[in-house]
Amino acid sequence: MASSSLTVSLLLALICVCGCEGSGLRYHFYKKSCPSAEATVKHVVKKYIAKDRTLAAPLLRMNFHDCFVRGCDGSVLLNSTANNRAEKEAVPNQSLRGFELIDAAKAKIEKKCPGVVSCADILALVTRDAVFAGTGGPFWRVRTGRRDGLISRENELSTNIPPPFSNFSVLQTSFARKGLNIKDLVVLSGAHSIGRGRCPGFSERLYNFTGKGDMDPSLDPTYAQFLKSQCTSLADTTTSVAVDPTNSLTFDSDYFSNLKAKRGLFQTDAALLTNPVAKKLVDNQVNRKRFFDNFKRSMQKFSEVEVLTGTAGQIRRHCAILN
Fold first, then answer.
1. What Cα–Cα distance (Å) separates residue 50 from each residue in 45, 260, 295?
2. Each residue of 61-115: pLDDT tens digit?
3. Reported pTM
4. Which of 125, 127, 128, 212 could share a disulfide with 41, CB 3.0–4.6 Å?
C-alpha cells in the first residue's frame, strides 16, 4: 500500500513537472518581483500609440520576426557589434520600427525593478497592447517568464523566415518547424489586416511573375492595376502600399474577404487559397468574432515558441546590448 501511494505521488509530481508549468511561463509571472511591470508596458504603449497609430503593425511584425529566429527570445532587439552582424541588419528587418517604444518601456521598468523583467517578455506584452490599443484588435492573454537570448545573427533570417514569394509548401514547413499547424498559418496571416508592404515584396507578381514579364493570374485585374499605379516598376524599392486595401489601420477580418476576392498583396497570401484545407479555413475567418477568437489562441501559442526560461539566457539591462 505504501509502495502504491509512493508510486502515485511520484506520478503526480512528474505530471506537475511536465505539465503544470508547461514551458516555464505563467500568467502574472512578475506579480511579486515586479508587480507594476505589465501596467507600465501598457502605459508606455498608449503614450506612443497616441502619437502614431501605425506603430502597431511594425511591432506585430517585429514579434513575428523575433519568434521565427531562435524562438521568442528578444534576439531581434540586439544591436550589431564589431564582431557580429545582428538580425537587425538583415534586409527584411531593416524596415522594422518601434525599437524606441521597447527601450522606453524597458527603461521605466528597470527604474522600478532592475534586472527582473526580460526584453522578450516586454516585446510580447507590447505587441499585444499595441494591437489592442492602436487598431481595435483582439486582446489575448500573455504568459510571462521568458529570458533573453544571447545570440543574434543576420544570416539566420533567410533560413527561418519564409520570404513573401513563398508557396504554400514552404509556408507550411516553416510554421511546422515552430510547432504551428495549418490553422495557425491561416489565422496568423490575418495579421496582414494592418500595416504596409514595400514594393519589392510583391512587385514581381505585377511585372515578372514567371520570369517572362507577365502578371500573376491569381490577382484581381483591377487590384493589380491599382498596385501598378503605386509601384511603377521593379526598380521601385521604397514605395509602400497598404496590405489591406479596405482599411490598413483597423484590425479586422476584411483581410480574408479581400483574399477570397483575389486581393491579397503578397504571394504568401494568395498561397493560402492553393491548399484545400487552408482555403476552407480562410472562408471560416471571414466571421470577425471567429477570427478574433482564433487569432488570440494562435498568438498565445506563437508567442511561446522555443522560449528560454529558468536559468537560460539572461535578463538584459538594455534590450539592444548584452549584459
1. 8, 33, 24
2. 999 999 999 999 999 999 999 999 999 999 999 999 999 999 999 999 999 999 9
3. 0.91
4. 125
Domains in the chain and their CATH numbers?
Answer: 24-156 (1.10.520.10), 168-302 (1.10.420.10)
**The C-alpha cell that represents 58 in the structure block:** 511594425
Q: Could you give the C-alpha distances from 268 to 185, 188, 190, 250, 275, in angstroms and in order? A: 10, 12, 12, 21, 12
Pairing of strands 240-242, 196-198: antiparallel
- Identify the helix (H) or strand (E) that includes residue 270: helix 267-270
CB 319 within 8 A of CB 102: yes
- The strand pairing partners of 26, in sequence order, are 144
Count other C-beta atoms under 10 Å from residue 305's C-beta. 19
* Distance from C-alpha of 146 to C-alpha of 117, rounded to nearest angstrom: 9
Distances (CA, A) of 249 to 135, 146, 219, 255, 312: 6, 30, 23, 12, 38
Does residue 14 sit in helix, strand or coil?
A: helix
Work out the average pLDDT over 126-130. 98
Q: Please identify which of the residues 28, 43, 65, 192 carries the catalytic annotation.
A: 65
Distance between CA atoms of residues 60 and 306, nearest Å:
18
Q: Which residues of 168-178 are buried (b: 16+ CB within 10 A; e: fewer)?
A: beebbebbeeb
Q: What is the pLDDT of residue 259?
A: 97
Catalytic, 318? Answer no
The string of DSSP codes covering 64-126 is HHHHHTTSSSSGGGPPPBTTB--GGGSGGGTT---HHHHHHHHHHHHHHSTTTS-HHHHHHHH
Following DSSP, what letter does each residue of 193-223 receive, concatenated? GSSEEEGGGTTHHHH-SSSSS---TTS-HHH
Residue 241 φ then ψ, to 5°? -130, 145
